[in-house]
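Q: Please design a sequence for this.
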């Protein structure tokens, strides 16, 4: 009997087929625009899923990466990395945190946060306190621990027993949270805005309530700002609008502006159990990533930048509300803050992203039948108007396919 090696047919791609990729490849980018291999231009309102926060080929980021690439790429964390020290200090100076651990991704930053919360209680003589309360609709990454934290069946199926230690409750249900707290509870983990879960915003009063609850029960509060952090809401960090602070926070995506980087920020108290040898990384905090991260902060922390994001976010939200009024059979609701916006679709969200693609505009689907709009934070009014023109055309395209008028009634024959 012949084995697998006797199979002569080969797949179209050598890549593991875990992504349903569109049949398009991009050759270059400039600002909010991407250009495919034929030179066709697309308005990028996906930003690599909120990663390219400063758009494509930002000159300051390019210069920083090129300069560092000519000097040093990797030495490991066995030695001092000055640019990493500088980036950590700047994050600390502009946040609640006292200390930073650099990773390569958001999932790794969340893994660090989870380990830190458990280690904190163990170091305080309570190793039994290891469970973390999470929320329905959450997305915290694709590792075994973070899919358990997210709790979504579609990500858990087929990967064996779910990692223990996570108790999921309904989204922002404070009564359910109180009931879920046990002598084994170590922390509460939440995204101030659920991105993958459908651009669901946690109201400021709820974040304040979680802070009070953690303080009362001796729990750590962990924020996942992998998607909503680094200026995307018009604040450096989304939770700052609520006027409270977590004990631990995970960052990634926009922190590197397109270069892989993550970070776990914490207070000294929360991180006191993480001593030498308790955690580690080979590539995290490498000189290339640190150079780019500092370049991103140069731009995001510049005077007026976050004011500009808030201004563009308000303008965009107002125009999206008008779009919804014109196309109620396509758009059911407008959600989000700053430049993390979502359109809850009245038709399948896949149809909306498809129609947008036909209008040469990129957007990203999310849970709860939502289309995420995640433009670069550098957009201006002209780009906003261009985006609305394409969104309007896409909605009209869907209505025409359904035989509907813009107001939702059946078109006359």
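A: Design:
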């Amino acid at each position: 009997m012949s084995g697998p090696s006797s199979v002569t047919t080969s797949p179209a791609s050598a890549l593991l087929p875990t992504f349903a990729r569109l049949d398009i490849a991009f050759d270059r980018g400039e600002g909010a625009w991407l250009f495919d291999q034929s030179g066709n231009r697309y308005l990028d309102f996906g930003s690599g899923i909120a990663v390219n926060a400063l758009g494509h080929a930002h000159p300051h980021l390019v210069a920083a990466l090129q300069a560092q690439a000519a000097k040093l790429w990797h030495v490991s964390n066995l030695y001092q990395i000055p640019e990493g020290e500088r980036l950590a200090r700047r994050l600390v100076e502009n946040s609640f945190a006292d200390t930073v651990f650099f990773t390569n991704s958001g999932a790794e930053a969340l893994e660090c946060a989870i380990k830190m919360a458990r280690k904190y209680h163990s170091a305080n003589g309570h190793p039994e306190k290891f469970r973390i309360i999470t929320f329905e609709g959450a997305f915290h990454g694709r590792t075994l621990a973070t899919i358990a934290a997210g709790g979504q069946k579609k990500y858990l199926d087929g990967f064996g027993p779910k990692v223990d230690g996570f108790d999921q409750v309904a989204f922002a249900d404070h009564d359910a949270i109180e009931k879920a707290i046990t002598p084994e509870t170590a922390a509460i983990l939440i995204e101030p805005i659920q991105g993958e879960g459908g651009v669901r915003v946690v109201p400021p009063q709820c974040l304040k309530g979680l802070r009070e609850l953690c303080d009362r029960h001796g729990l750590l509060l962990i924020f996942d700002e992998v998607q909503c952090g680094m200026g995307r809401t018009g604040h450096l960090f989304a939770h700052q609008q609520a006027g409270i602070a977590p004990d631990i926070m995970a960052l990634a995506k926009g922190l590197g502006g397109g270069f892989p980087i993550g970070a776990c920020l914490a207070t000294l108290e929360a991180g006191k159990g993480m001593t030498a040898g308790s955690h580690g990384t080979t590539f995290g905090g490498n000189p290339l990533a640190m150079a780019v991260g500092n370049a991103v902060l140069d731009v995001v922390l510049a005077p007026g930048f976050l004011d500009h994001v808030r201004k563009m976010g308000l303008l965009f939200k107002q125009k999206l509300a008008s779009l919804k009024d014109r196309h109620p059979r396509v758009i059911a609701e407008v959600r989000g803050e700053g430049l993390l916006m979502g359109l809850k679709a009245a038709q399948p969200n896949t149809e909306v992203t498809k129609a947008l693609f036909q209008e040469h505009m990129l957007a990203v689907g999310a849970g709860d039948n939502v289309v995420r709009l995640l433009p670069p934070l550098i957009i201006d009014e002209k780009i906003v108007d261009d985006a609305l023109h394409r969104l309007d055309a896409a909605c009209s395209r869907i209505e025409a396919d359904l035989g509907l008028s813009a107001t939702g009634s059946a078109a006359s024959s």
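Q: Thanks. Anything notable?
A: The chain has two domains: 19-50+312-347+356-402, 59-300. Confidence is low (pLDDT under 50) at residues 1-10.
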